[in-house]
Records
---
Amino acid sequence: MLSQLFILSSKGDLLIHRDFRGGSPVPVPEFFRHGVEQPPPFQSLGGLHFAHVRHGGLFFGASTEGDASPFTIIEFLNRLVTLLRDFCGPLSEKSLGMNLALVGELLEELVDFGHIQTTTPEVLRSLVQSEPEVPKPFSLLDLGSVGLFGAETQQSRVAPGAAAARPLPPARGDQPPRPELFVDVLERLSVVIAANGSPLKVEVQGEIRLKSFLPPGTELRIGLTEEFCVGKSELRGYGTPVRVDECSFHSSVSLAEFGSGRVLSLRPEPGEMTLMQYQVQDEIPAPLPFRLFPTARAQPPNRIHLYLKLRCDLPPKSQAINVCLQLPVPKGVSSLSQELSSPDQSAELDLGSRSIRWEIPKIQGGSQLSALFKVGSQNPPKFPQKSPKKFPKSRAAPSSRLSSRWGPKKPPKFPKIPPKFPKSRAAPSSPLCSRYGPKKLPKSPKIPPKFPKSRAAPSSPLCSRYGPKKLPKSPKIPPKFPKSRAAPSSRPSSRYSPKKLPKSPKIPPKFPKSRAAPSSRPSSSWICRLWAVPGAWSWVLPTPPSSCQKPQNSPKNAQIPQKFP
Amino acid sequence: MPYLGGEEAQRELRRALSNPHVQADPARYRGAVLRVIRLMSQGADVSGLFPEMVKAGAVADVVQKKLVSFYVRAQAPRQPQLALLAVNSLRKDCAHPSPAVRGLALRTMCGLRMPGIQEYLQQPLVNGLRDKASYVRRVAVLGCAKMVKLQGDCEVDGALVNELYSLLRDQDPIVVVNCLRALEEILKKEGGVVINKPIAHHLLNRMPDLDQWGQSEVLTFLLRYKPRSEDELFDILNLLDGYLKSSSPSVVMAATKLFLVLAREYPDVQADVLVRVKGPLLSACTSESRELCFTALCHVRQILRSLPGHFSSHYKKFFCSYSEPHYIKCQKMEVLCELVNDENVQQVLEELKGYCTDVSEELAQGAIFAIANIARTYTEQCVGILTELLGLQQEHITSAVVRAFRDLAWLCPQCTDAVCQALPGCEDTIQDSEGKQALIWLLGTHGEKIPNAPYVLEDFVESVKSESFPAVKMELLTALLRLFLARPAECQDMLGRLLYYCIEEEQDMAVRDRGLFYYRLLQSGVEEVRRVLCSPKSDPSMGLLGDQSKQPVNAWASEFNTLATIYGRERWALATAQQPVEPSHSCPPCADSSSRDTESLVSEGNKEVPEVHPDTPMSEGNKELLKAHPDAGSLSLIPDVSLTAEQFEKTWLSLDTCCQLSLPWCGPVHADTIQTALRVVHIQTIAMSKAGAQPWKAYLSAQDDSGCLFLTELLLEAADSELQVSVKQNEAKPEALQSFISALRTVLEAVAGLES
């Protein structure tokens, strides 16, 4: 049971507030306003418990008197974010302000008296009647996106289309919406790289996200590459396998054709959904997208020169955009001067987090960028190399294994320098998704409006690759299906039983069975985890023959990225 | 705060709202209403527009109706007379052909929080409950709860309750769940909605129709149901098995909790369930939503407390990644500490070592304490790593390492030598009070093993005048006196100087008193000093810090999937104790809690470091606790219960055990102490074994003001260091039982602390 619901801006201004129960003495807690960078998700104040999630700089919070399940609250808040995004378009302070009536209507239907009512987008669409207003992407105040004399800037050229972010049209719209489908592949890489450049720990978490503007009930078939395999043991096909360790699918995905043809079929509801999630650990088949070569030299009395070389190992035809590199610096650093290899890059010293942020709008696959940062401080920073006189010699050389992890030359204050991979949707930052399609952003293979309703005629481009012919031998792993919902007695072997008795008598339902019309639609459950299911994926985009090649090393001094003609 | 141009804006809006031209154009009319709402949400006072807004609600446009409804509900408490204006048009809307309008009107009426509205509500609500549209019934059912809440203390209408119970058989799943919620609130005083067998079975059959929120809610309600027979229990488990694999984490967790609670007496089923929930929990731990990840990590820790090896093979999932926020990293480090075993200890330590040099000091220190935690089991490796860290000569790292060393030397005496070898050289790097105290304590207590200990302490004595922390001075006094006993020749002179300074020049009262005390103690002879100061240096049997005993699953099953797991038990008790509405059922907060109740609970919990103050006897805090809270919690036990031994025996044999727990216990039992302590909280001792008997047993009884009896057996096996407590209750009142147990636990732990 929720007592209040609120949405706060990043500065702590209250954008939207609902008090469901009345008379809650505590307004929105102050702790969001004091610019706390990472407030813990659950906090307690005056007998109320506040939970929040953070999305795009906004806080979505709820308070409860303490009897609620934490999982439910967090899941509901996440759901709320998705719904708001579906209904209002991209979320920001501005768009929420413009859609005040819509958000109000939505919250009204979502929660009554603190109890969650329904979150199914279809139901909500029939109940909510305001029209969404999308903030215009162009405004005179926002000059950053406009170049001189209207010329395209780097940013506007590489920014992904905003089409996918637009809100769902209302159910009773005048004209039917354009039936479109957007597919995103998002991958999060966490990599720890040793000083010698070999990756110590690699983890990729990826997901395929679908945003559908198709009329409800359209059947969709998505073919993945046939070389896709799950787990280490399974081997398929003759080409290089595309291997993931674990993958799971949305509960509405039918896996009937997976074992054989790697085809996912589903009927997407309008709105956003996560079709599939997968994880890869330790061994990834492609080189890491970036490699950083740092050199640090101390310049007495109080300066350090950091020379960074960033190599992009994507295929030469692809490019990475909006790359941001964060480099922690020792405390006490107060000034930064920089030499960057091209003018569109920028770097600044963020004193709050004690790090340098180096932002690169675009980097071509196979090219190399370099930067020289000179950081200085008022007080000479302490370096372990400079052994204080007082200490016995043995202490002076910090030859511990700790520092050897990052190379002996560096001061120990420089921990892992993780190349921060861009999180933006458009950036093909992962080696996995960079396999497919030169230059094409993974975003939005547009699908023509016509959709065949029957499975028999696979005229849609999505499934056209997969004809009836199948690979002769493909070790089939029967997908585990969720057990049927039938009464327990109908199952021959029950999972839980007293050890002695094999029989389990039926529970006699005392009430008359008044299930008039079971809704044909499955309940709006979110992501289904099926560990053992073999899954596979490939895109509609044709796989270029050259894409699997290693990126050619660019000439030695190619520090300036290739320019477009 | 007067809104900028508030008056002006309000006048203009009134003009617009009452302008017939605007009223004729739906778009402009709605625009004007929207502006009012916008002003209201910015905090401006728009109550003056009430009549115009009520009028604006009488149009056909549903969106506008909704906006007006929002306005009316927000403003009604301020304008009760005018709000009655709205009631008329709302009652008219309740008979509107469109269900959406009917529902909206009903919801608005129920949402008017003003006295006297009930009489207008009765009829529309009854109509609403029988409406043919499920949307209206959903609203009406919750409307009943709102009405009862408005009424306050009045008698609950029996007919209404019956109507709601019969609506549990409604076709619409949301109506069913809403009925449960409404009944729960209406019958709150009587213990909430009753789940009997027919209702439970009906709900079980309806489960597949519900959406995820309904499912997790119904699973929570089903916790109340106690199956009559074993067969029924297992049928229910089998029926609900699928929900353990639901795609929604909240359903999975609710189902897990139900399984754990229902299968209370079947540890193998519980273990099986925990194995099955591993997958969903792990995937929540790696979820993209950080908040979900945090919640899952808290639950992982809870499970690890009972099954330490449960996640050991997945230790890599709990490695931190660079961009994660602090609260997740801290949780992950704690998880890593708990799942460490022989196979993964190398990798885990390797990883934790990496965090020790994190840019964030808080995190780096957290990692160091995590290593220190592991050092209790894998001492050698960890001490090696910690010693390496000293080489970095970073202030915060050295301080944390020395504090970790102090705790280690106390807990694992075998590593004292290694610690002593690592210490020289630290004194120049440490600046903070905690670190200095730890270093001084180590130098004082183990000074005979550190060659230059007196000289380091001498530096501290030299600079004592500029020392800003009184605690450091106190520590210095004690340490120097200790070292004086071990190495008198080197210390005598500076001890004299220090004592002189403390007695003659020191401003801080506590330090001065401590100085005087030691001075007088020295006057009574060295033997006496030795007797007072050199009591046993470490006593692992105290089990206060090394309290890593496995909790049984049943001890936390009822807390699973609640906020108590997120905060941790102590902090949860603290948080609920502040709650003004509901009296606390858990044990009262400690004496020092008042100062930190506004701080964030979770982050503090993460930072928490085991603190050892060898100079303060451990039992002092407990003594205070015992004195400060004689009646432990809100449960009020009757002082004099007349229960004879025969009656007790009869009742004892006829009841089933409600709760079993075991408390750490060491040493012999002092029957008198226990008896006296229990009498303080009004728990009577019926019978007790003789001191020294093996096994030792005691039977206790207590009764609360509602007549509920609590019968308790304490059992101490000979070789066992655990006191087994089993409690029986003659009425099933889980809340009362909970507070009784927490009271009992407080007393017994306090006594255990006293005796050891």
---
Amino acid sequence: MTETLHPLLEIRGLRKQFGTVEVLKGVDLALNKREVVSIIGSSGSGKTTLLRCVNLLEEFQGGDIVLDGETIGYRISKGRRYRIRDRDLSRQRSMTGMVFQSFNLFPHLTAAGNVMLGLRKVRRLGRDEARAIAEAWLGRVGLAQRGDHYPSQLSGGQQQRVAIARALAMDPKLVLLDEVTSALDPELVQEVLNTVKSIADDGATLLIVTHEMRFARDVSNRVVFMEQGQIVEDGPPAEIFGNPRSQRLAEFLRNTRT
Amino acid sequence: MGYSLHFGAIWASFDRLLSGLAIGLGLAIAAVLIGTFLGLLAAFASVGPSRLGRLIAGSYVMMIRNLPLLVLVLLVYFALPQAGIRLDKYESFIGALALYSGAYLTEVFRAGLLSVPKGVVEAGRAIGLTRFQTGIWVTAPVMLRNALPSLGNTFISMFKDSSIAAAIAIPELTFEARKINVDTFRVVETWLVASGLYVAACFAIASFLRSLERRFPKF
Ligand SMILES: Nc1ncnc2c1ncn2[C@@H]1O[C@H](COP(=O)(O)OP(=O)(O)OP(=O)(O)O)[C@@H](O)[C@H]1O
Ligand SMILES: [Mg+2]
């Protein structure tokens, strides 16, 4: 196990606005390798936007995101920042995996085809090698028998597990998960949470946005509480849930407890 | 004193009608293939980031849609040689019909592109596909499947419109029917048989396309 000196992900002073509305107001967050961090916070606090900035799906107006020592998304030239070319953005994007709330599987491809596309076109592996990796990952998420099924033939929970396999098969340094169980029927939530848990146990680095407080407590090394575009608290789950320091977090937890 | 039907003379020339039908089909297939390419290009341009691309695609669709096909066919057939471009009448008609179908297909594909869920496209970007790769491997196939029924309808329209080729003496079905009409004076029989052939061919094409739609997985 190699310990790096710098964190795997370092977000410094991240600012993002949509038009004139400032949605992220200077976010600082660092993640070490193999760490699992959950972000909690009320609706509209900017959790999704933060993940989308890290995956370079959104542009941002200020601050830096450094992934494994590389500043991503922008380059500085003569004191001005420029968004980098699409080709370079794509390469940097392939270093992070993203799992979406609404699965977003490619509807025209089978489960195996979904996992294989990035392996073939981004990592440029041969068909056989890509298929072997896809089958291994589908097995890993408990869908060994479903490789030939199209997304429309799978349950929501199964689709989300394919999406997890699709993200992890790319061997990303960091996986971003945005409320991956929110679109699921209640009886399908647990199978997906178990899958995420087992991936965390295997040593993946995860940044998770979730409304499942019990899950956040179980799976995370740290929990981050966001409010109105800022990180208000950041600490071990026992502290965040057991001993909130801020009024706002205490209130949030009171309101989300069922 | 009614008109009594005599089909004998028509059956004698039936093979000419059939070969006319085949020519019409060939013209439509060639034109729609090229038109599909044009339509894809213009549709991607019309939803793309380039202002110039959107302008060119928009002007193309607007111009073609406001021109009667017959005028477009005659324009290409008579005007291009003046500009030093020599095409035979088949090439020139296929070119005109391709331009024409391309404009309609642009609209078909544009609607198809807008129907591809944004999240699915983002999932493509998220695994590291470039914008271009996402277009080829994600957006286009999803859009084509959604557009398949409209694509089929456009093809049937273009097959019917291949009758316009008669105007520049391409021996397709309408042209042959007109000759048989003149030779035999069996006006009603000729056009009844020609109509029957068009209807039967369109029906066959539609069934074929429907079986094609069933072959591809529904989303
Ligand atoms: N594309 C957009 N254009 C304009 N405003 C946006 C856009 N996306 C998000 N916002 C705004 O940014 C703010 C943060 O949204 P975001 O989706 O990041 O919140 P969230 O914490 O993920 O909320 P939720 O828990 O409901 O998912 C909200 O006020 C939202 O309205
Ligand atoms: Mg969100």
